[in-house]
């Protein structure tokens, strides 16, 4: 084994090892709205579900130059977001929205995908997404470095409305068909992965 002490690595080196090891990661493609009404759309891959008692998911948004990114600022201001799961056919559009824009610019201008009104929140979603969740902010956790400076904005979001394409969800069983969803996962750097082969393994009682 190769042994590396975290305290002897730079932050960049630590992040490189972390993002290359925790794979594959689902991509949360998130719409939020600024107080000025600008719709922001951006992808984040430090995300997961966190509870079996409440419909909660977490999204970690790394700060840029010490400042919260637009998605984080909008969530803190308006407490609402639509989280979309990224399918293979949306990968290129998703990547386009990772561009750095000023807060008064919308990533929607970079892609040709229509919005759809949400049912319970003000923020709209992407019509093309096969799965989207209308969410409200449940808990905010500022992640600080050892000097007390916020380096990451961690959001726990509560899903208020689930939206599924009828090709993805079998309603009687509530079974989500992963092949029909065709999800894309993030690896390290500019690399991504498709679902690939799956298998079943039942837990022991």
Automatic annotation (TrEMBL):
* InterPro entries in the cross-refs: Flavin_Rdtase-like_dom, Split_barrel_FMN-bd
Keywords assigned by UniProt, alphabetized: Flavoprotein, FMN
SMART domains listed in its UniProt record: Flavin_Reduct
Domain of life from the UniProt record: Bacteria
Flavin reductase like domain span: 20-182
The cofactor(s) it depends on are: FMN
Keyword Mitochondrion assigned to the entry: answer is no
| Pfam families given in the database record | Flavin_Reduct (PF01613)
Q: Which Gene3D superfamilies match?
A: Electron Transport, Fmn-binding Protein, Chain A (2.30.110.10)
* TM spans (from-to): none
Q: Which GO molecular function entries does the Swiss-Prot or TrEMBL record give?
A: FMN binding; oxidoreductase activity, acting on the CH-NH group of donors, NAD or NADP as acceptor
Q: In the UniProt record, does the keyword Flavoprotein occur?
A: yes
Coiled-coil regions listed: none
Family membership, please give it.
Belongs to the flavoredoxin family.
Q: What is this protein called?
A: Flavin reductase family protein
Question: What is the originating organism of this protein?
Answer: Lacticaseibacillus zeae
């Amino acid at each position: 084994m190769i042994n590396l002490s975290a305290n002897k690595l730079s932050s960049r080196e630590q992040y490189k090892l972390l993002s290359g090891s925790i794979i594959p990661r689902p991509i949360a493609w998130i719409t939020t709205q600024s107080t000025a009404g600008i719709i922001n759309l951006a992808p984040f891959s430090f995300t997961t579900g966190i509870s079996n008692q409440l419909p909660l998911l977490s999204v970690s948004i790394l700060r840029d130059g010490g400042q919260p990114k637009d998605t984080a600022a909008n969530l803190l201001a308006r407490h609402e977001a639509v989280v979309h799961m990224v399918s293979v056919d949306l990968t290129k559009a998703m990547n386009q929205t990772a561009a750095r824009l000023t807060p008064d610019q919308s990533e929607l201008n970079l892609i040709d995908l229509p919005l759809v009104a949400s049912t319970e929140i003000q923020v709209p979603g992407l019509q093309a997404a096969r799965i989207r969740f209308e969410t409200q902010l449940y808990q905010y956790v500022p992640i600080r470095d050892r000097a007390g400076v916020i380096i990451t904005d961690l959001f726990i979001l509560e899903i208020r409305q689930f939206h599924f394409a009828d090709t993805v969800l079998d309603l009687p069983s509530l079974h989500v068909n992963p092949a029909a969803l065709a999800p894309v996962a993030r690896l390290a750097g500019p690399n991504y992965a498709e679902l690939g082969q799956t298998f079943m393994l039942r837990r022991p009682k």
